[in-house]
Write a structure and sequence with these properties.
heterodimer; A: mainly alpha; about 0% strand; elongated; disordered N terminus; B: mainly alpha; 22 helices
Chain lengths: ~180, ~425
């Protein structure tokens, strides 16, 4: 569990942290539901296919749609918990100030990359809306999935920004 | 500046950023995006940055990742690993070094349902290490056997790293799972041989336990039937063509949950924890895959793999020499990079060269995974060694380093066997799918 920045002097930072915490929890639940749906739909599909020769209509597309929700909403929790894979060899060679500076650089670059992705995805989402493409079996408009993806990205960016700011707040308060 | 030079600079920048503690996903994304921007222009770079994340996150074939991760998380939360170790311990009683063998065998089996080396090493440390210490085993040797056994998790199917290789190299997951089975079993056997050899050479480090009656030893094998049920259903289902990898993973995850609850070894709280861990682990893997997809497009545009191939031809080096150089490169890179990042960064560069020399990409996948395994256990930075020390902080890291040394010979022997006898990896996929 990630600790709240209780010792930070910056009230805005603490408020943003609480907001991001709630958001990532909600997104985590959404991703968890998507994962369970993926699992259950596939299991039921296999059972119905082999026992009754009657698979779940559009099961592949349900899994694909749930995977979109799962990935883009689950990312928020990963960023909020700072669970990204890093090569931390330098931690054993550099002083704490340099390591902290590198952590801040990493956080800033992460936010920049996420924003580039979100911006680039927005253009693709608009195209998907204009073309009106749909999933073949479920007839689900593809742009709906883009909306889900962009919503997830927005939450992920917020979580990434908050963790970035929180490091700053911790650094200022000497923690 | 020519594209290959830009590619070489991109790779140099990639390593610089990785050592500067920038997350792997971000490094791959930054270098991939910047490279595509320079070589293809802004519209192409933004189009790729907009489509690659969505393509990866809506690919049915990749849904296998969170489902297998969930199966592994559930298995880790139940007592499956302790059942496996108990069965191996009892059935191997009376053999000098029996607990070392039990730890390796149980790790191999647990890795077969878990798919993660780190999780296997962490779980088996909690279960096997206290028993080995109680029985008077040398700390380093005990830790070495757990680290080595833990590394089997990424080779014995299902293996997340093979799924990721399949995605980046456009290979079939069932074919890779079939290819990895026999090398995984051979490596398990080699680790066991090393354990038995060291035990006989250093009897004080691995005492023999009292031999239990044959009836008791045979009866113990029935204990971990849940493992057998899960493995036969998932991997057997894939091999038999009954399930796709995604279906097998979903059934495996569901089966693990049902078995956990039915054996009263699982609670709702543990299920929630397993799901949360699966969400975080899988989504961050997806972030790395997205970055790797961008990086792979950049590598294609640089023609760097072609240049490597023509450079190798100009040097007149034979295939095995090229492969030996690649393996040495992997072992060196493995000192600094973790396994999945290493696969995603190196495969787009090396695979075209390997195929140019006529090697099978499925065979190369097994070589890559074995070399990644070496990276997981070789000092000074093998991840499994630190995982074990984190679980048992009173263990000295120097003891662990010494304990793992004899086991390092096993994967190297396997690599030699794979070169001499590629059928070890290629026979089963050919029988099942050709």
């Amino acid at each position: 569990m990630t600790r709240e920045p209780a010792a930070t002097s910056d009230g805005t930072s603490a408020l943003a942290y609480r907001l991001a915490d709630r958001l990532q929890r909600a997104q985590m639940r959404l991703a968890a539901v998507a994962l369970v749906v993926m699992m259950l739909v596939t299991v039921v599909d296999v059972i119905l296919r082999y026992l009754f020769n009657s698979p779940v209509h559009g099961s592949y597309e349900i899994v694909e749609a749930m995977l979109v929700v799962f990935v883009f909403h689950g990312l928020a929790a990963g960023f909020f918990r700072r669970a990204n894979i890093v090569i931390d060899v330098i931690d054993h060679m550099a002083g704490p100030r340099l390591v902290m500076a590198l952590v801040r650089l990493a956080d800033t670059l992460s936010v920049v990359v996420l924003v580039i992705f979100a911006w680039a995805m927005l253009g693709q989402a608009i195209q998907a809306y204009e073309y009106g493409d749909r999933k073949l079996e479920l007839a689900l408009p593809i742009y709906v999935l883009w909306i889900a993806a962009l919503a997830g990205m927005a939450g992920t960016i917020l979580c990434a920004v908050v963790t970035c700011v929180w490091v700053d707040a911790r650094a200022r308060s000497g923690r | 500046m020519s594209p290959p030079v830009i590619g070489a600079l991109g790779i140099a920048a990639l390593f610089a950023l990785l050592f500067a503690r920038i997350p792997v996903w971000a490094v791959l994304s930054i270098i991939g995006f910047a490279g595509n921007y320079i070589l293809g222009g802004a519209p192409a770079a933004f189009a790729l940055a907009g489509t690659k994340p969505f393509d990866a996150a809506s690919a049915y074939t990749l849904s296998v990742i969170p489902l297998f991760v969930l199966m592994g998380e559930v298995a880790s939360e139940t007592r499956l690993s302790s059942d496996l170790f108990k069965a191996a311990r009892i059935s191997l009683s009376g053999i000098r070094g029996g607990l070392l063998v039990a730890a390796i065998a149980a790790s191999g089996c647990f890795g077969a349902v878990c798919g993660s080396s780190v999780a296997t090493a962490a779980t088996m440390t909690r279960i096997a290490l206290p028993e080995m210490r109680k029985a008077g085993y040398d700390d380093g040797l005990a830790a070495g056997s757990i680290a080595a056994g833990g590394s089997l998790g990424i080779l014995i199917p299902p293996s997340i790293i093979l799924v990721i290789y399949a995605a980046i190299a456009e290979q079939s997951v069932p074919r890779l799972f079939a290819a990895s089975l026999f090398p995984g079993l051979v490596l398990t056997g080699l680790y066991i041989l090393v354990a038995l050899f060291v035990s006989s050479y250093r009897p004080d480090a691995a005492p023999a336990a009292e031999r239990l009656p044959l009836r008791v030893r045979l009866a113990a094998l029935a204990g971990p039937w849940q493992f057998l049920a899960l493995f036969v259903t998932t991997i057997g289902g894939i091999y038999a063509g009954i399930f796709s990898p995604t279906e097998a993973a979903a059934i495996g995850a569901f089966g693990a949950i049902v078995l956990g609850f039915s054996g009263r070894r699982f609670t709702w709280l543990k299920l929630m924890l397993a799901i949360e861990n699966a969400v975080v682990t899988s989504c961050l893997l997806f972030a790395i895959i997205i970055g790797a997809n961008l990086f792979a497009v950049f590598m294609v545009q640089t023609h760097l793999p072609d240049l490597l191939a023509s450079g190798a031809e100009a040097l007149n080096l034979p295939g095995p020499a090229i492969m030996a150089l690649i393996i040495v490169a992997y072992i060196v890179i493995g000192c600094f990079l973790e396994g999945i990042g290493m696969v995603l960064i190196t495969v787009p560069v090396f695979l075209p060269l390997v195929m140019e020399y006529g090697y099978d990409p499925v065979w190369f996948a097994i070589i890559v995974v074995v070399v990644v395994e070496v990276g997981l256990i070789h000092p000074p930075v093998g991840m499994n060694l630190f995982v074990i020390q984190a679980q048992a902080p009173d263990l000295k890291i120097t003891d662990i380093y010494l304990g793992i040394l004899p086991f390092l010979i096993a994967p190297l022997i396997l690599i030699v066997i794979l070169f001499a006898l590629p059928e070890l990896a290629l026979w089963l996929p050919a029988v099942l799918y050709d």
